[in-house]
Design goal:
The chain is of the alpha/beta class. It is 40% helix and 22% strand. The chain has a single domain, classed as NIF3 (NGG1p interacting factor 3)-like (Udp-n-acetylmuramoylalanyl-d-glutamate--2,6- Diaminopimelate Ligase, Chain: A, domain 1). Helix 2 runs parallel beside helix 3. The longest helix has 20 residues.
């Protein structure tokens, strides 16, 4: 997914927003522009998308976890990379899926949170 900011924000603000959303401090490779306007989001193990983010000229990529090469790749592309945690970034989708299934089929659902530090 690609989002566009209505007003540019800095890397500290983007990191703070990600921390609030996931409940944990993200790992940040601050390699992009001062004013962030375009942000790619790939949950879980989405660090591979740094190449697409670079080709698309995005200012930042938010994902779950990094691989070792992504630090250098983010610097080479001039893209901020933020890792919010594999598990922490994937829970948004599955929670929403549970809500949609419950609404559509009239069934009860419960999301069981089993925090994972990865």
């Amino acid at each position: 997914m690609i989002g566009r900011a209505t007003e540019p924000l800095g890397i500290a603000e983007l990191a703070a927003r990600l921390a609030r959303a996931t409940g944990r401090e993200p790992l940040v490779f601050a390699s992009g522009p001062e004013a962030i306007e375009s942000i790619g989001i790939v949950t879980g193990g989405g660090d591979f998308a740094i190449h697409e983010a670079g080709r698309l000229g995005l200012d930042a990529l938010v994902s779950g976890e990094p691989s070792e090469p992504v630090m250098g790749e983010a610097r080479e592309y001039g893209v901020h990379f933020l890792a919010g945690g594999h598990y922490a970034t994937e829970t948004f989708g599955i929670r929403r899926l549970g809500e949609l299934v419950a609404e559509r089929f009239g069934v009860a659902h419960e999301f069981i949170d089993v925090p994972n530090p990865v």
